[in-house]
Amino acid sequence: MAALASTFFFSPPKVSYSSSSSNPVSKCWPAKSLSPENHRNLVSPIVASALGKRLAVTSELSDEDSSHNSFKKLVDSAFVLCASVALSVSLFAGDVDSASAFVVTTPRNYSQMSWLQQDAFTLDLLEVPQGSGSGFVWDTQGHIVTNYHVIRDVAVLKIDAPKDKLRPIPVGVSADLLVGQKVYAIGNPFGLDHTLTTGVISGLRREISGATGRPIQDVIQTDAAINPGNSGGPLLDSSGNLIGINTAIYSPSGASSGVGFSIPVDTVSGIVDQLVKFGKVTRPILGIKFAPDQVVEKLGVSGVLVLDAPPNGPAGKAGLQPSKRDTFGRLVLGDIITSINGKKVSNGSDLYRILDQCKVGDKVIVEVLRGDHLEKIPVTLEPKPDET
């Protein structure tokens, strides 16, 4: 394990692992030339194969110390893992038809090393195509954090390694970050392993739609150069503390354009903790279907309009009223959710954000506009039916 931070070159093994979508950034997905079953970031199984896989489970997101020596010491202990994988297209591909697409063209492989595979019958040497990605040591138990599916999932792997050989990355907080704060990104861009780039936080609390359509809240925007191969790598503050996982870039040209995005560490920590303990992420639901935000805006009100609340779901059990038609066929609007636990709900994004901060089994107070008056209804959150 002395060379744990080295790049690994090998052919990809057959690895099976479970996943739980984390919703985690806007309309980015693997290149369309890949078949659906291959639409995944191969970094996780590759790292696991190189180091001895025990467990690979996935989920679909400070004050600065300007001391250079302090930063260098902590970065040295970050133990960034860079793994080359068999993938002949960019890990960052996007929907060119979308106005908010994240687009990076297939990169040239600049790595000076390659893996040659010998055919058992002809003895010919065949070069294995490669892509790249990154990850880092989370704890002394051998858990590695990386991406499972680019800008969709966080993956946790378990490796066999002596505890004294593992140096977990220092975990910071992302709640108190400031625009203009200096940051560092470490990764394996274009196969160039052990690459460090620097920049500043350009924006905070960005919202980007995930591959499932569910918004990812509080994403960090940075101008630190992030390119294909940085996916899954850490974003650090000037003290060397983890503040985010590099996830996606916006680039119409295919190169870093100074607009990169990272999932904040506060989001990542909650996901990783659940994966380590339970092997999956269980998210609470309110159990409703709601109208598009544009429909509610036309009504001149602010909130989330309940279209359906199945009686066996948490909202239905609590008595939330769905939209329906009366005996004359006229539409009767259902409850409009205006707040949860005192936190204002103006649209669907607010609803998702608040629920993401809750746990299964939590009892929340849902305030609804029913007719011309407000009502407060206690609702006990439940897991998705397929997660029980």
TrEMBL record:
Any Pfam family the entry gives: Trypsin_2
Keywords: Hydrolase, Protease, Serine protease
Stretches assigned to the PDZ domain: 275-347
SMART domains per the UniProt record, alphabetical: PDZ
Molecular function (Gene Ontology), one example: serine-type peptidase activity
Keyword Protease appears in the UniProt entry: yes
Top-level taxon of the source organism: Eukaryota
Gene Ontology biological process terms from the UniProt entry: proteolysis
Stated family: Belongs to the peptidase S1C family.
Protein name (Swiss-Prot/TrEMBL): Protease Do-like 1, chloroplastic
Organism: Sesamum radiatum (Black benniseed)
